[in-house]
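Known limitations

Structure tokens in this collection are predictions and should be treated as such. Users comparing against experimental data should check residue numbering before alignment. To illustrate the layout, the record for SusD/RagB family nutrient-binding outer membrane lipoprotein is reproduced below. The input appears on top and the generated tokens appear beneath it.
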Amino acid sequence: MRKINKLVMGVLVGSMLLTSCSEFGDMNTDPNRPSNPLTSGLLTGAQRSVSSVVGDATSVLYAQHLSEKQYTESSRYQTVYFDFNGFYSGPLMNLQRIIELNTNEATKGDVLSSGSNENQIAVARILKAYFFASLTDRWGELPYTEALQGELDFSPSYDSQEFIYTDLMKELKEAAAQINPATAAVEGDLLFDGNMESWRRFANSLRMILALRMSDVAPQAAQTNFTEAYSGGILLTNFMYPYLGEANNQNPWYARYLTRVDYAISDTMYDYMMPLGDPRLAVYADPAANTGTIESMPYGVSNAEAGSITNAEVSYLGGAIREQSAELPIVTVAQLEFSLAEAALKGWISESAEEHYLKAIEASFRQYGVYNKAAYDAFVAQPEVAWSEAAGMERIGYQKWVALFLQGFEAWAEWRRLDYPVLTPAKDALNASKEIPVRQAYPTSERDINTDNYQEAVSRQGEDGLDTKLWWDVK
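Generated tokens:
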């Protein structure tokens, strides 16, 4: 905890050294070459923004893991336009600055206190790929190749999602190869504490996940990238975001419950897990106050209907998951095992799809502390869960959805790609189509300020709304 506190404090110090000018002016000072730039502070700052991905609530509602209890507009798809500007001006700009300072001959020697140049660049490239992958899976086409130029270009053009995915594959492959464990590890790293082998494995794991995402539209490229990444070594333990027992860096679900009690286990998830006797349900949700048993909340109902149900009648998000310092998953072993099961089912790897599928469920049980061999064996023997080659994608889709609990963006993306589980739209949906969103619309600032490039992107991709499918979503 002390280590993370020091890293968080480094954000402020690094930012001051990199961007501030003295109140006495900047005479005789080269603003492009600060004397002691702390790129470690920039890295910590960028990593803290990972929390806004893994702790997002709207995507969890889209995936129907949870229902809202009081104000149900988000689960009824009221919001159409979502803002990506904070990612560009925040973590992505930080990471771009790290790359520039470690590449520029005039500054690359000044930043060695934060790790070797090659390792800093590699980590920044991997994190950039992580953020851009999350963004493009929300909006589709994005400012990419012309982005992050600051005052040099306030109106960047958009790249197609196909181009972005292709480049992300390249970036992850090259960054993994660029890591040099024989040189100084990165400093300011609150995610892996400077473990460069873990960063390499994360790059390969992310590349594997993204390769599957594009498997329906670019199968050959997807297979090549998947098998290369897998052979290079992937994560062997759960990769979690580390929160603290303090307001500075606390679990966002804990923070939400400070202001109102508004997230309960959805009837969608309950109705699938409860008949199977899934032991994870007791971790995902607390017993309802009036019954002492787990009770679900109807998904996507009006505020009036939700208000007619008392707080004591439903089960809220499990207390252990929403503790102030409770970690949230970035990439899990279960997620990767499900990916390997699918790759085996597709014939990409000569391994057993059933074995990886069963390992995935076991890994998820272990992740939530509910693994017991006898109970596990009984669970996977049930007809609805037991492996079936003919129904392989359905089995993977449903169990992966359960295992991706609170990994909202991943669960939402995989539902769009696999079309499993079968989800029913919100009963009282507020969007025009009344369907579950398959993307999010661009911030209105792009329409108003970057108009020409925005309009070109919309003309290629389709209407800027919640119902336009992304490039990889063809089913």
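For this record: The CA atoms of residues 42 and 97 lie 8 Å apart. The chain is about 50% helix and 5% strand. Please report discrepancies through the issue tracker.
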